[in-house]
Design brief:
single chain; MetI-like fold
Length: 338
């Protein structure tokens, strides 16, 4: 296993190089950019104050200075090598929009996405595993059919659409005013007592958490149910029951462990969930996390932040896959990676 982990870590290097190279090239093809925006601002300001036409408000020398300031006086391939060299020294550059180091910009948003992503992910597992197990044991019962109808109704609804409905019904829309409209804490959060802070966080996080969980919740529940049903039909279950084990003992000691193997594969998504699918939810609930940061950076052509988010998400996704493989061996000792 140790040799396998080392090989996987080494393979991450060319994988990251390939991902960042492709993404860097695609980013360069996006129209506009910090140079064009700065030139437009200078032209607008000069024309507005001096009555000079926009085309004559800035000289070629000034344009060259702006390009040099943003590093766009070099060809794209050289800019990529410079960016890669800086990354090797843990320097992701400076944000054009915020005027701060990219690490600072990302680190201020990352804990928010981390908290929502991990909380919703593990709550989903804590609920979906026993729920899927119960649905498998009571297959085709009223409980199974009723819970499937509820879960399917949530699965077909996107998280952001559910968020809008929750706001309308429970956050001061047309009906109840139970939960806050958005944000992660109240403005007077620091003035609250400990228990008041806990309650404030709970009230602010409840609705967004439902939206984060909805699609993963349905998938995990049915994955667990189908996995358990498949294990219940195997020969070793019939053998265990024939030897005198009760159904409950055979289920817990044999079927459950094997049924968890497909579930473990989803654990690799725990890191990528910090970025994927959160953009519109963050927009609806005014949560300043990684999804919204990535969207705003793309709109503002903040290339350094865009590449920083892509790099971080790629690294986390690869470590997630490795983490999933390690968990395979813990759930089923028969699995060995050579």
């Amino acid at each position: 296993m140790k040799a396998y982990v080392i090989r996987r870590l080494l393979l991450m290097i060319p994988t990251i190089l390939g991902i960042t190279l492709v993404c860097f090239a695609l980013v360069q093809l996006i129209p506009g950019g910090p140079v064009e925006e700065m030139i437009a601002k200078v032209q607008s300001a000069a024309a507005g104050h001096g009555g000079v036409s926009a085309s004559k408000a800035i000289s070629p020398e000034q344009i060259a200075q702006i390009q040099s300031y943003f590093g766009f006086d070099e060809p794209a391939w050289k800019r990529y090598l410079i960016w890669l060299w800086n990354v090797c020294h843990l320097n992701l550059g400076t944000s054009y929009t915020y005027g701060q180091p990219v690490w600072t910009v990302i680190s201020s948003r990352f804990p928010i996405s981390l908290a929502f992503g991990l909380s919703s992910f593990f709550i989903s597992y804590l609920v979906c595993i026993p729920l899927g197990l119960a649905k498998a044991v009571k297959n085709h019962s009223f409980f199974d059919k009723a819970s499937s109808a509820v879960i399917f109704s949530g699965y077909v609804m996107p998280g952001y659409a559910l968020g809008i409905l929750l706001i309308i019904f429970f956050a001061g829309g047309s009906f109840l005013n139970i939960f806050p409209l958005g944000g992660i804490v109240s403005e007077n959060f620091e003035e609250l007592s400990f228990f008041e802070k806990v309650g404030d966080i709970f009230m602010h996080w409840t609705l967004p958490m439902f939206c984060y969980m909805i699609s993963e919740f349905a998938f995990l529940t049915f994955l667990m149910k189908n996995s358990v049903l498949e294990e219940l039909g195997r020969d070793y279950m019939r053998t265990a029951l024939a030897k005198g084990l009760s159904f409950r003992e055979a289920l817990v000691r044999h079927a459950l462990r094997n049924a968890l193997i497909p579930i473990v594969t989803r654990l690799s998504e725990v890191f990528s969930l910090l970025f994927a699918g959160a953009l519109l939810i963050e927009k609806v609930f005014d949560i300043d996390g990684m999804g919204l940061l990535y969207y705003n950076s793309m709109v503002n052509r903040d290339y350094n932040v865009v590449m920083g988010v892509i790099l971080l998400s790629s690294v986390l996704a690869m470590f997630g896959r490795l983490f999933s493989d390690i968990l395979y061996t813990l759930v089923d000792p028969r699995i060995r990676f050579g």
